[in-house]
Design a protein that fits this description.
Chorismate Mutase Domain, subunit A, globular, 3 domains, alpha/beta, Rossmann fold, 6-phosphogluconate dehydrogenase C-terminal fold
Length: 375
């Protein structure tokens, strides 16, 4: 038996080595694709091409008795690496005549990421940090694009200092709230203005498939090239009114971050054995606890600013507290039928999204399970 296993495992090892060689060849080809895309200004993410390729490979896998989902999982992971590799080839510069790009707060994590993207596209990038304001007039006098990427609580103050920009300069911001910063930019600058919100952190390997929210301010025809440049980097642009954006962020960011914060605070008081929890946990709980831990590995000022950025956020959290209290009272009464009735109402409200989220979460849980090592 040992000899049989050894012989089979040697064959498996040989196949694995061939797979590594094939992946190396594929990545080399991707680098060449990146060069061509850079030369012609094509986006690194082409959704139609990706969908067609995956459908074709799934059919081929099925014909050969290979689970279609297996080849899709392999290809999606490979493509993620490919998108990261493609960006190293640089990108076509859509506005070569543009004067300097100035990132205010450009040495922060998000500013550093976008500074690199602009430089990879051939733009001249300058940075203003808090100690550079004595030189700000000199840096800003010939700016073609100014992006404010500072903490939320400093954003309006910084925008207020930008009253001497060239008239044709584009003024933008990356703040996670939009209404107040957009109004402030429109008040201080008479040229093109746009509010942007990158819906991702600075640790993304590439901008492929990442969402950047765009809230129109003034002179869209003058900053359209900027949106197209983001598209070349792989980002998907979501156009929305500033007020609608902020309403959405109340749910997506403020309430979600607050509930995660509250759960983490509770855990720190209960003090469970974390190693034991992980040993006992299913993939879904491991993901949930990982998202809690992820929050507390980051800057508390950022999350405090997001949660406390508007009265609407506070009001929504209070409404959540009321709903939570009502649910607690239901459990305290031992009202199982009440629980079932509420469950049914929520399920009905989700509608078809429930099944969609079930499918999406199953794929996530498979990946989470694969990453777990049980010693």
């Amino acid at each position: 038996m040992a000899e049989q296993l050894r012989a089979l495992r040697d064959q498996i090892d040989a196949v694995d080595k061939q797979m590594v060689e094939l992946l190396s060849r594929r990545l080399a080809l991707v680098e060449q694709v990146g060069v061509v895309k850079s030369q012609h200004g094509l986006p690194i993410y082409a959704p139609d091409r990706e969908a067609a390729m995956l459908a074709s490979r799934r059919e081929e896998a099925d014909r050969q008795g290979v689970p279609p989902q297996l080849i899709e999982d392999i290809l999606r992971r490979t493509m993620r690496e490919s998108y990261s590799s493609e960006k190293d080839s640089g990108f076509k510069c859509l506005k070569p005549e543009l004067r300097s790009v100035v990132l205010i707060g450009g040495r922060g994590q998000l500013g550093t990421l976008f500074g690199r993207m602009f430089r990879l596209s051939g733009y001249e990038v300058k940075v203003i940090e808090k100690d550079d304001w004595s030189q700000a007039d000199e840096i800003l006098h010939d700016a073609g694009l100014v992006i404010v990427t500072v903490p939320i609580h400093l954003t309006l103050e910084v925008i207020g200092k930008l009253n001497k920009l060239p008239k044709d300069c584009i003024l933008a911001d990356f703040t996670s709230i939009k209404s107040k910063p957009l109004k402030a930019m429109l008040d201080v600058h008479e040229g093109p203005v746009v509010g942007l919100h990158p819906m991702f952190g600075p640790d993304v390997p590439s901008l492929a498939k990442q969402v950047v929210v765009c809230c129109d301010g003034r002179g869209a025809e003058h900053y359209q090239w900027l949106l197209e440049q983001l598209g070349i980097w792989g980002a998907s642009i979501c156009n929305i009114a500033a007020e609608d954006h902020d309403h959405g962020m109340t749910m997506i960011q403020a309430l979600r971050h607050f509930t995660t914060f509250a759960y983490g605070v509770h855990l720190s008081k209960v003090k469970p054995n974390m190693a034991q929890l992980l040993q006992l946990s299913s993939p879904i709980y491991r993901l949930e606890i990982a998202m809690v831990g992820r929050l507390f590995a980051q800057d508390p000022n950022l999350y405090g600013d997001i949660i406390l950025s508007s009265q609407e956020n506070v009001d929504m959290i209070e409404r959540f507290h009321k709903s939570f209290t009502e649910s607690v009272e239901l459990i305290k009464r031992g009202d199982k039928q009440g629980f079932i009735d509420n469950f049914g109402k929520v399920s009905e409200w989700f509608g078809d999204y429930s099944e969609q989220f079930m499918r999406e979460s199953q794929n996530l849980l498979k990946q989470a399970h694969d990453a777990i090592h049980r010693g």
